[in-house]
């Protein structure tokens, strides 16, 4: 068995920081962490990004920079300046970590290449109920169409959100005024992530479910539809 089993492959994103905070909250410590690419910039939002409480969900601080978070926790990590997941330097560094499982938290629109998927099991958490809600910004589509949210954990393959599903979970709508992109989307992804990793670390097998539906993926939501989803969230809060 490899000395190092669980590896985080992290872009410098809010989601990566939220994942690290959620893992630390449950004392799930990765065996290695590879941070790649350039920073994504500061969090800028007109909605609430801190201090939002939702049932039993862990509340992270999306404004906490990934590197600062890792340094504060004392978790060692390696840095690769390459942005491309196909970059030979990145692949060599990842190979040296001898991962049994890679948790992927990359940049928006970035697909994990075949050369990486052929070598490792890559865990990704998608915001949307698979297989019905594949593709981009599906959280908003599900809010509009079903009045709720969901997240799905899967092992990646070479297509978009079509790999075997490990777990799915429904979540309530976020509180009115909550930032969905930086905060709530990442909160529910992180919640499901720690659930499946705790199961994996305990030695219990995942119940893998293959995806039979071959519907086309959703595309990035139009700003008007996104605004409609946010209005639906705020309206639900006022009527409850």
TrEMBL record:
Residues 62-185 form the Formyl transferase N-terminal domain. Transmembrane segments: none annotated. It comes from the Bacteria. It holds the Pfam family Formyl_trans_N. InterPro entries: Formyl_transf_N, Formyl_transf_N_sf. Gene3D superfamilies: Formyl transferase, N-terminal domain (3.40.50.170). Signal peptide: none annotated. This is Formyl transferase N-terminal domain-containing protein. It comes from Aeromonas dhakensis.
